Amino acid sequence: MRSLIVPFIGVALLATACGGGGASGPTQLGGVTPVTGVGVGTNFGFDLGLVSGNRYYFTDRNNASVDVFDTATSAQVGQIKGTGANAFAGVALTSTGSVDNSRSGPDGVNVVGNMLYAGDVNSVKVIDPATMQVVKTITVGTGGTRADEGCVDAVHGMYMISTPEAATPFATFINTATQQVVAQVTFTDPAGNPGGGLEQCRYDPGSDTFYVNNDGTTANPHGELNALPGAAIRAIPAGGTVNYTQLAGMRAYPEGNCDPTGLALGPGNDIAVNCREGTTGAPLLVQIMDRTNGNILASPNAGGGDQLEYDSATNRYYSAASRWTASGMASTGGGCSAASPCTPVLQIIDAATRTVALRLPSGNNAHSVAVDGATFKAFMPVSSGSSPGGCSTCTASDPAGLLTFSTK
């Protein structure tokens, strides 16, 4: 399918505002909000976040916690940490001392009824936000890798979470009423090879479909969007495991040279895919697709991000583009380094026109974003300016913490 590539022209970076409430138009509000346990010089390991009620939550591996902030003030109000078997894994290191994300946690986080579910190594942790306690651990694997990103079918009481770094990636489905594992789906492609990994998923209640970004298959080595019918998931015998290709009505849509990460359901039949291309010099894209047939409707030059969110209050997508570059093309190998630096931004895409509306400077490794339609704010954790390396718009004195942006 043919993509419409929008070149990197004509979209200016807005200057960062130093004050709060009087801002007109999307801009950064205030400075960096401190986060307990991190600061100047910290290589801050965090993953996804969300807004629920008047609280913003994000997963914090340095502190082995889910951090909690007030949406009105952006002030930190707590850190949720488990104990004993309910403790989060925290930051894991490789034998050479580098961070091993595949064995670190917590990772993704979702609202499930009146609870929060957070992915962790081999497990999902159930959190009671009222008491700010981890109340249960649901085991989903034994291989020592993380259960990463999840999504919720609130209609049928089903929660999906992926284990992307297993030898054969798989997704676990949990009954949210019983908090028990009811099925697993493996990802071996039609050629017999394990998938390249699994990224963000979304459930569409209108079509009763779980959508998930598959990092790569033999047919689509740079990613495909898999549509898993909810009815086919619920038809799996209790405790059973099936391969995704065996699910009745499963569809696979090519994503082009994408290397997908985030995923967001947009207006109408639109679904947006965040691409973080690993091909040096490739355009950094967001693929906006028709989720009924996989047609690529637009490919704005706004990729390089991880978490992607759609906000109906502003009818815009928000992408935490930590690997954006000044040229709008992927840096060497898609990463960030002193020799091939990144210029992290918050990408804002108009969902009506499927074009870039704004780019706001963010901060080092700012790959997570959550949007609050009630307060018209977006929240982004950020690492310190000096660590990890490769941010050309950062300074060594920039602390790790939380950034807040207005969205209108």
From TrEMBL:
<keyword id="KW-0732">Signal</keyword>
<dbReference type="InterPro" id="IPR011048">
    <property type="entry name" value="Haem_d1_sf"/>
</dbReference>
<protein>
    <submittedName>
        <fullName>YncE family protein</fullName>
    </submittedName>
</protein>
<dbReference type="InterPro" id="IPR015943">
    <property type="entry name" value="WD40/YVTN_repeat-like_dom_sf"/>
</dbReference>
<feature type="signal peptide">
    <location>
        <begin position="1"/>
        <end position="17"/>
    </location>
</feature>
